[in-house]
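Support request, please re-run this one:
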Amino acid sequence: MDKRTQAVEAYIKALRTGEASATALAGRFLAKDVVLDTVGAHMWGNGPEHFEGFDNVLRTITGIEVMTQLYRGAGWPAPEREGADKLKVVANLGGGLLTSATLTFTFNSADQITHISQVNAPGAPGPATDTMPDFVQGIVNSALANNRPLIVAYTDENGAPNLSFRGSTQVYSPTQLSIWVRHASGGMAQALKKNPNMTLMYRDPPTTLTFQGKAHFEDGDEVRTRVFDLMPEVEQAHDWDRKGAALLIDLTRVNGNTPRGGVRMVRG
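Re-run finished. Output below.
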């Protein structure tokens, strides 16, 4: 393998893994005056960015970043030559959040990387739907097991915003979420009876999903049993006597981005 190909592969390994050893290896191939220019969707910040110097460029491939998970699972082919002093790699990112990442590397006479151009091409926006896509339902149902319980927002009895994690949140139907509220007469229960508007968020970069809807409590034994049975065992263990309340959230909107594409659910 020639030194320039080795340099590109080292840089890409650091980009897609964030491993300390990979970053250290990539650093051996960067010139002191190296420059990184990024263009396209979902880079480190907003819009085109420009990084100058060894330390600033190395920092962008150090550690786990927002896009590391997406880069990790991408298809990275062998670099191709672009003229006398350049190598190019076009990665297949799957066509969800992003379709591709094109990296072009320029070298000096010492085979050090002097310039990197990275262009990320966005994926197509998700189609509008009136139900949650199946993969979104899977994300919700596995949220607690993934150590990413949904964050729930509602307005308390005094009109103040309130946030809490709700590990019992599950999909009840393609248009509904369910939560087992352990304190049936507690503050959350009383507040939602006055103001049923709720927002929930799931965040696991690069996935971000927000859910909006109206909540209501169900007293029927059949619904209560199903809501309890749906939630993870670790949540059931907090209320084996089933003294809590079954809360259903009728969704009006779900928005967000995932590696499998954008999500846009809207109901009347």
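The CA atoms of residues 45 and 97 lie 16 Å apart. The chain has eight helices and 15 strands.
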